Amino acid sequence: MKHAAGTSRRHILRVGAAAIGGGLLAEQKTRALETPGRLGAPLGPYGDRSPFEKAVRWRRETRTPETGSSFTPLQDSVGTLTPSSLHYERHHAGIPTIDPARHRLVIHGLVDRPLSLSVAEIRRLPSVTRIMVLECGGNSSSEWAASTAPDVQRSFGLVSCSEWTGVPLSLLLAEVGVRPGASWVIAEGADACRMERSIPLAKALGDSLVAYGQNGEALRPAQGYPLRLLNPGWEGNTSVKWLHSLKLTDQPYMARDETSKYSDLMPDGKARIFTYQMEAKSVITFPSGGQTLPGPGPYELTGLAWSGRGRIERVEITTDGGKSWVHAKLQEPRLPLAFTRFRLPWRFDGHEAVIASRAIDESGYIQPSPEALIAVRGTNSVYHFNGMKFWRVRADGTVTNVEG
Ligand SMILES: Nc1nc2c(c(=O)[nH]1)N[C@H]1C(S)=C(S)[C@@H](COP(=O)(O)O)O[C@H]1N2
Ligand SMILES: [Mo]
């Protein structure tokens, strides 16, 4: 294992400047300015992006437009945060419109003092802020078989990273007083399907959050406005949105989304249930499926890595189909459970290259190859695919799935 002999950034810049040339450079500089004397657009109360920016979520067609998934355009993302407007969405019964002045969170069941709290009351409690990934347990389900998802958005886009603010659930549970015998918390949403999940009490007393904030403002309606549960490092489905009830019980509910869905059917016909943990995963976002390199020359490979177990320790990259691996450079700070961006200088020499990344987290867990994952889990399951993703960079610069 060795570090790649870096293509120096100064060299890349020199190539660019030489290609443009002095006269053209001056011309472009003037063109970039507004027409002299004419004012730009006025100030606005709520910001929007440049009209030249086109990145959007992609959504799979469903019979009812209210249900389904929309995918974050990972190929267009830079840095490590997902703008709220591009956060992936997964709704089972549409996005309810909830007036925060009328919404309440009820905490009941095996507790000493049942409570009904308004959103304002919750926002007054001691809060915490934490940057972390949310990933659907069904992310990358396309990858269990030869992938037909043409790009990183459709194959890996049910994951996003936000800054979340909320009240530790442990604090609310201390307030109501958990009775002996309680071992589960049943979280229920206020959407039309009243989606519910059973959360083990240990997690609820650990790092679970009742969140009201996302990226510095209130949660977006699609993300659960005005309140959602967040279970750090766990499959997105457990992070119940539009949270309105937490009931303490002595057993799980065996709800639809923890039995017939979000359980993992193994090769022997038995299903694993309550597989909450999201394992280490990474993917190269540039170059990735659907993109085209304009020609041979220096490039920077980049992508994202994350793990439900904690920090990303290392990301390794192959550009020869898995024969050799080099360490990518990791962007600091590497926050536990958050996106870590990795980068590697790379020279495309005009010959076909098969590229992939693999993440190693602080627990020592290594992201498996798809073959190694399938050898254990079979292909009955749709959930929890975290295998490596190989892209083929063809001699003409086009990038596809390896199967493509
Ligand atoms: N009430 C409610 N909570 C929910 C859902 C839902 O449909 N209803 N979808 C779940 C699923 S499957 C996922 S992956 C995440 C998606 O969160 P997001 O839409 O904010 O990305 O929310 C979870 N919480
Ligand atoms: Mo999900």
Mind explaining what this structure looks like?
The protein contains seven helices and 25 strands. With 404 residues, it is an alpha+beta fold. It has two domains: 74-139 and 160-272, Oxidoreductase, molybdopterin-binding domain (Sulfite Oxidase, Chain A, domain 2), CATH 3.90.420.10; 281-401, Immunoglobulin-like (Sandwich), CATH 2.60.40.650. The strands form six sheets. It has a six-stranded mixed beta sheet, with no helix packed on it. A five-stranded mixed beta sheet has the order 6-5-14-9-10. Strand 15 and strand 16 form a beta hairpin. The longest helix is centred in the N-terminal third of the chain and has 12 residues, at 9-20. The chain is globular, with a radius of gyration of 23 Å. The two termini are 30 Å apart. Mean pLDDT is 93; it is low at 1-7. Bound molecules: the ligand Nc1nc2c(c(=O)[nH]1)N[C@H]1C(S)=C(S)[C@@H](COP(=O)(O)O)O[C@H]1N2 and molybdenum atom (MO). Residues 87-92, 134, 136, 189, 191, 195, 222-223, 236-237, 239-242 line the site of ligand MTE.
Report the structural category.
Answer: alpha+beta
CATH class division of the largest domain: Alpha Beta
Radius of gyration: 23 Å
Overall number of strands: 25
Residue-averaged pLDDT: 93
CATH homologous superfamily heading of the largest domain: Oxidoreductase, molybdopterin-binding domain
Show unreliable segments. Answer: 1-7
Based on CA inertia axes, which overall geometry fits?
Answer: globular
Oligomer: single chain
**Distance between the amino and carboxyl termini:** 30 Å
* Ligands, ions, cofactors: ligand MTE, molybdenum atom
Question: Strands of the largest sheet, in order across it?
Answer: 1-20-19-23-24-25
CATH topology-level fold name of the largest domain: Sulfite Oxidase, Chain A, domain 2
Largest sheet: 6 strands, mixed
